[in-house]
Amino acid sequence: MAELDADLDRIIPSSVLPPFWAKLVVGFVSLLCFARSYDGDFVFDDSEAIINNKDLRAETPLGDLWHHDFWGSRLSSNTSHKSYRPLTVLTFRINYYLSGGFHPMSFHVINILLHGGISVLMVDVFSVLLGGLQYTSRGRRLNLAPRSSLLAALLFATHPVHTECVAGVVGRADLLGALFFLLSFLGYCKAFRETGNKEGTHSTFWVLLSILLGTVAMLCKEQGITVLGLNAVFDILVIGKLNVLEMVQKVLHKDRSLENIGMLRNGGLLFRMTLLASGGAGVLYMRWKIMGTGPPAFTEVDNPASFADSMLVRAINYNYYYSLNAWLLLCPWWLCFDWSMGCVPLIKSAGDWRVTAPAALWLCLIGLICRALCSEDNHKRRILTLGLGFLIIPFLPASNLFFRVGFVVAERVLYLPSAGFCMLLTFGFGALSKHTKKKKLIAGVVLGILFINILRCMIRSGEWRNEEELFRSALSVCPLNAKVHYNVGKNLADKGHQTAAVRYYRLNPKYVHAMNNLGNILKERNELQEAEELLSLAVQIQPDFAAAWMNLGIVQNSLKRFEAAEQSYRTAIKHRRKYPDCYYNLGRLYADLNRHVDALNAWRNTTVLKPEHSLAWNNMIILLDNTGNLAQAEAVGREALELIPNDHSLMFSLANVLGKSQKYKESEALFLKAIKAHPNAASYHGNLAVLYHRWGHLSLAKKHYEISLQLDPTASGTKENYGLLRRKLEQMQKKDV
């Protein structure tokens, strides 16, 4: 049994040490922590990645998933985030198909189960990292650290920083990436199962399978490829038994015995390193080729430190971000769904007290590295090095060291690095237990941490159940975050509380999305001048903001500034070529200017891009009807109903056209079908009455005129037609008399 396990003897009871029970406890606790989120809504990024993502729908070919990013945009697009996770999107699509639509419960349940499975796998992973790799003669791996692996797995399963990954459906990318990351690592360990760790021997099949699983992890989340780095570190330290300090000393002293170091003579190790390096390089090259147009373009508000002119300012702030991530692992009480947009102000001078945070972080890291390198205890040296490796290596893609990332701090990227933290924390508890006689006190501290973590997970899972609670929970953590105020405002606006929403939007004078939404509210309130000023400023700040250009065009159209409105619409389409709503509004502008052909072309573009755009189809039918093109109007109406067969407004418009063409029977059938779908529409009854009036079915005409006037007594046209019908009926009665 490992030395660390002996130190934890009084902390972890022996009754839960058998592997089955250990995994059962870890699995149960992991599910308990996040079970509260099982019936939550789709929140925050879920709407874009799931609800608005066409890749989840059956009509999108499966092959498109390999050419689109995580959000459903083409990777070749300049606006793509380049987040290439086709296997995660595939699981969303399967989820959507099996649940019969966008039912969030099934999506949440899968996430919770994935976290439970990963936590159980962590028992095996930690047993290797903490106890070493050793197999029986029958090829069964021995768990040499049952206590420490159980404790580390429990700390991982209950860590509150995982809430975003588990309770937010979008976090499935991190969960799947972590799952295949761990399977890749365990597969790499199996490469030495039948060799008994003999020098230079291994199973090439398992090494190649490990690389394949690492590739699968990367296709779920980009972080997954870093498992190849962890496998290499594990191989060198555990299988190759390299003493880094000894090697460095020999290099510095030019010791000739360096040539005799086993690792350098180990052809098997060099072969495995070559496989890992070439496999990783090949996968990364393919990933870069698929990305197409280079790295994504982020804005300053996403990651302000990366836009700082001074390299020193960038370095200080990056290190401050690292310290914030470390603090979230150490004290995960202040959690926020978004840390950008002013949440973490830039450090611009050495006099800022926050520079002490990165200094403290590096003091701790240097201390751990020194212990890892200088310890004479091989077991301690291995645990500290592997713990630091698991903490740092999966975090590297989010570190800004190799490329700019689109966030300041993101709790989701800590899912895998937290395993390294839990490993180091377990080692710390073991060391503390070894040097003190108060074992019960340490056991109480451990139980207290686990209990507090479980409680915090439950509270935080509740906050992730709906957007209102999630956004409001962020106000106390990041009161300077423009995106937090924007999302609170948007949530209020969606519920109809526009006055309250305006107050939150005005807190963000330079956040373009808040300006765009505020401009829309002002437009609806007919405060057009201020709306135009806000939207004009928004497109100045972000010239490629297509939605703001379109909304600016709508406001300018309302102000009768038609040329400026047309230019705004055209600019929006230039920045987003496939923009059906913008083509629709451009068509409305042309209709107002009596440019009928241009209007029809714009609406036709709308329906090509979005065949279910009912308003565009309706406007085409009505315009053709009003201009006397009844045959063309009828053809368009029939085409529209084939695509959207249950749209009552289309039935109504086509029924009007058929009535004018004296196709009374077919027109009547469509009117009745529209009324059945929407029985309280006064105009439907009124126009059906007009049809009966023309057709000569006067009693039916009278009936529907009366129903229409009951629903809308102010309809002057219906009143007039009803009056004409009554006079005609009176004349007929007199004639009969």
TrEMBL record:
<feature type="transmembrane region" description="Helical">
    <location>
        <begin position="169"/>
        <end position="189"/>
    </location>
</feature>
<comment type="similarity">
    <text>Belongs to the TMTC family.</text>
</comment>
<feature type="transmembrane region" description="Helical">
    <location>
        <begin position="441"/>
        <end position="459"/>
    </location>
</feature>
<feature type="transmembrane region" description="Helical">
    <location>
        <begin position="269"/>
        <end position="288"/>
    </location>
</feature>
<feature type="transmembrane region" description="Helical">
    <location>
        <begin position="413"/>
        <end position="432"/>
    </location>
</feature>
<dbReference type="Pfam" id="PF13374">
    <property type="entry name" value="TPR_10"/>
</dbReference>
<comment type="pathway">
    <text>Protein modification; protein glycosylation.</text>
</comment>
<keyword id="KW-0808">Transferase</keyword>
<keyword id="KW-0256">Endoplasmic reticulum</keyword>
<dbReference type="InterPro" id="IPR011990">
    <property type="entry name" value="TPR-like_helical_dom_sf"/>
</dbReference>
<dbReference type="InterPro" id="IPR013618">
    <property type="entry name" value="TMTC_DUF1736"/>
</dbReference>
<keyword id="KW-0802">TPR repeat</keyword>
<feature type="transmembrane region" description="Helical">
    <location>
        <begin position="201"/>
        <end position="219"/>
    </location>
</feature>
<dbReference type="InterPro" id="IPR052346">
    <property type="entry name" value="O-mannosyl-transferase_TMTC"/>
</dbReference>
<dbReference type="Pfam" id="PF13432">
    <property type="entry name" value="TPR_16"/>
</dbReference>
<dbReference type="GO" id="GO:0005783">
    <property type="term" value="C:endoplasmic reticulum"/>
</dbReference>
<keyword id="KW-0677">Repeat</keyword>
<dbReference type="Pfam" id="PF13181">
    <property type="entry name" value="TPR_8"/>
</dbReference>
<feature type="transmembrane region" description="Helical">
    <location>
        <begin position="225"/>
        <end position="248"/>
    </location>
</feature>
<keyword id="KW-0812">Transmembrane</keyword>
<dbReference type="GO" id="GO:0016020">
    <property type="term" value="C:membrane"/>
</dbReference>
<dbReference type="Pfam" id="PF08409">
    <property type="entry name" value="TMTC_DUF1736"/>
</dbReference>
<feature type="repeat" description="TPR">
    <location>
        <begin position="546"/>
        <end position="579"/>
    </location>
</feature>
<feature type="transmembrane region" description="Helical">
    <location>
        <begin position="20"/>
        <end position="38"/>
    </location>
</feature>
<keyword id="KW-0472">Membrane</keyword>
<dbReference type="GO" id="GO:0030968">
    <property type="term" value="P:endoplasmic reticulum unfolded protein response"/>
</dbReference>
<feature type="transmembrane region" description="Helical">
    <location>
        <begin position="355"/>
        <end position="374"/>
    </location>
</feature>
<dbReference type="GO" id="GO:0004169">
    <property type="term" value="F:dolichyl-phosphate-mannose-protein mannosyltransferase activity"/>
</dbReference>
<feature type="repeat" description="TPR">
    <location>
        <begin position="512"/>
        <end position="545"/>
    </location>
</feature>
<feature type="transmembrane region" description="Helical">
    <location>
        <begin position="386"/>
        <end position="407"/>
    </location>
</feature>
<dbReference type="InterPro" id="IPR019734">
    <property type="entry name" value="TPR_rpt"/>
</dbReference>
<feature type="repeat" description="TPR">
    <location>
        <begin position="580"/>
        <end position="613"/>
    </location>
</feature>
<feature type="domain" description="DUF1736">
    <location>
        <begin position="294"/>
        <end position="366"/>
    </location>
</feature>
<feature type="transmembrane region" description="Helical">
    <location>
        <begin position="112"/>
        <end position="132"/>
    </location>
</feature>
<keyword id="KW-1133">Transmembrane helix</keyword>
<protein>
    <recommendedName>
        <fullName>dolichyl-phosphate-mannose--protein mannosyltransferase</fullName>
        <ecNumber>2.4.1.109</ecNumber>
    </recommendedName>
</protein>
